[in-house]
């Protein structure tokens, strides 16, 4: 607005004669005003009107909390459906007659609002240019559209859901103040597990403050390290009453929580978006109590059953092992342990005799073979040949092994050495094969 120039001709209802100063002497912008050179009030009002008139009309959704009629016109107050914010507005008869809608307190509507500024009174008015009731069909369509959008982000994926602890030490409960849902959860949980411990946070569960209070309670419980699971519970109600549990802000807060969250909203037929994002959906608050804590009677029965099964298993094992021991003790080798030693001793003795016989036989055969070979060697030895009357003639002056094999080797007069069976003697060759003895 500071960039607007002070032109009195732009001010509705204004005139230069009404200004105490000529227009040319007025500050051009708000930043140039001072105690010595201020703007006339109507100039500021005119510039405000110019700025507000340029603001476009906007569609808003809210709930009618106040309504008064004056003639054909109506003055109402709209309140945000999720937050503490309200705005007065006026509906002219032309709009009401054109739409033919019946407005009453509590009605949920969407309205086309246009801001208007009245210079004479300095009052800002929100004028309703169009208004439409939000029916159940519209609400359901919006909820389903939001459900699909959040599902496409993966907020409802099973992989994101956490398992509840078998026996939570401390349970956070978010519910209405002194509500039946609170009583159902506490009573049924105590009946199932008397030692159960709750941290109860009572909040508004419907109306425009419900979402904020539930989110704050959820974050507070989620930050408490002693809380193992959080239950959000509320009894049944109309679709409008359950709208806080379809809030995108609440859904994202539950998705961001690190503690498992149980949704227990309404009855079996109710299905707010909170059911989809929660780690576990309970059909009713009573069902939530049954799903969160185990039944002590059932657990004791299971313990007794497990103990009986374990006892039977141990008894079967002991009986089976006793039978095996009896079977082992009844075997001959254990009944008469020396029998095995006697059998082995006899077998060793038999093998020893067999080995001795085999070795003796091998020695005898080898000895016979040695005698046979020795006889062969002796029969073929030069001595045996000499014993049969043969002699070996050698040259006396030759090498010991120079044996005379032909007469040419011993001409007449050659000194010879003759070896016979009983010894040797010298001889002289007589030539032509005759030998003269010395």
Give an account of the 3D structure:
The protein has helices at 41-53, 93-99, 136-152, 180-192, 210-222, 248-256, 273-277, 285-292, 296-329, 332-335, 337-379, 382-387; strands spanning 58-70, 73-79, 86-91, 108-118, 123-133, 171-176, 198-203, 229-234, 261-265, 280-281, 392-395, 415-420, 423-431, 434-437. It is α/β, with parallel strands linked by helices. It folds into four domains: 8-53, no CATH class; 58-134, OB fold (Dihydrolipoamide Acetyltransferase, E2P) (Beta Barrel), CATH 2.40.50; 140-294, Succinyl-CoA synthetase domains (Rossmann fold); 384-437. Helix 4 (180-192) packs parallel to helix 8 and helix 5 (210-222) runs parallel beside helix 6. The radius of gyration is 63 Å and the shape is elongated. Residues 1-21 have low confidence and may be disordered.
Topology:
Layout: H1 41-53, E1 58-70, E2 73-79, E3 86-91, H2 93-99, E4 108-118, E5 123-133, H3 136-152, E6 171-176, H4 180-192, E7 198-203, H5 210-222, E8 229-234, H6 248-256, E9 261-265, H7 273-277, E10 280-281, H8 285-292, H9 296-329, H10 332-335, H11 337-379, H12 382-387, E11 392-395, E12 415-420, E13 423-431, E14 434-437
Parallel strand pairs: 3-5, 6-7, 6-8, 8-9, 9-10
Antiparallel strand pairs: 1-2, 1-4, 2-3, 4-5, 11-12, 12-13, 13-14
Tell me the span between the first and last alpha carbons: 172 Å
CATH topology of the largest domain: Rossmann fold
Gyration radius from CA atoms, angstroms: 63 Å
The mean pLDDT is 84
Estimate what percentage of residues fall within beta strands. 15-25%
């Amino acid at each position: 607005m500071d960039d607007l120039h002070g032109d009195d001709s732009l001010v509705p209802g204004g005139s230069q004669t009404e200004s105490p100063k000529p227009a040319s002497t007025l500050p051009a912008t708000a930043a140039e005003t001072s105690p010595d050179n201020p703007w006339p009030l109507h100039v500021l009002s005119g510039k405000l009107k110019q700025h507000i008139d340029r603001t476009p009309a906007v569609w808003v959704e809210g709930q009618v909390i106040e309504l008064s009629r004056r003639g054909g016109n109506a003055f109402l107050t709209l309140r945000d459906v999720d937050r503490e914010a309200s705005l007065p507005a006026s509906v002219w008869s032309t709009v009401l007659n054109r739409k033919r809608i019946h407005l009453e307190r509590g009605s949920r509507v969407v309205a086309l609002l246009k801001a208007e500024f009245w210079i004479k009174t300095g009052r800002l008015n929100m004028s309703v240019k169009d208004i439409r009731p939000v029916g159940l069909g519209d609400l359901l369509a919006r909820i389903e559209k939001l459900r699909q959008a959040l599902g496409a982000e993966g907020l409802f994926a099973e992989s994101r859901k956490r398992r509840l602890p078998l026996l939570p030490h401390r349970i956070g409960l978010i519910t209405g103040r002194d509500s039946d849902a609170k009583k159902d959860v506490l009573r049924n949980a105590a009946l199932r597990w008397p030692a159960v411990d709750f941290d109860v946070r009572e909040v508004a569960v419907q109306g425009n403050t419900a979402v904020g209070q539930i989110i704050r309670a959820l974050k507070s419980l989620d930050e408490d390290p002693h809380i193992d699971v959080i239950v959000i519970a509320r009894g049944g109600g109309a679709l409008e009453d359950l709208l806080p549990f379809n809030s995108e802000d609440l859904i994202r807060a539950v998705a961001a929580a690190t503690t498992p969250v149980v949704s227990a909203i309404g009855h079996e037929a109710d299905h707010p978006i909170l059911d989809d994002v929660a780690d576990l959906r309970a059909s009713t608050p009573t069902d939530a109590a049954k799903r969160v804590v185990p039944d002590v009677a059932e657990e004791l029965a299971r313990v007794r059953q497990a103990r009986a099964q374990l006892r039977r298993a141990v008894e079967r094992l002991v009986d089976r092992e006793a039978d095996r021991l009896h079977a082992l003790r009844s075997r001959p080798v254990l009944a008469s342990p020396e029998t095995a030693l006697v059998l082995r001793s006899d077998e060793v003795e038999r093998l020893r005799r067999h080995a001795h016989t085999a070795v003796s036989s091998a020695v005898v055969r080898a000895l016979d073979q040695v005698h046979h070979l020795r006889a062969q060697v002796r029969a073929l030895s030069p001595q045996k040949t000499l014993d049969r009357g043969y002699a070996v003639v050698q040259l006396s002056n030759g090498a010991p092994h120079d044996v005379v094999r032909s007469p040419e080797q011993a001409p007449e007069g050659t000194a010879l050495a003759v070896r016979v069976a009983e010894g040797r003697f010298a001889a002289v060759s007589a030539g032509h094969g005759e030998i003269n003895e010395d």
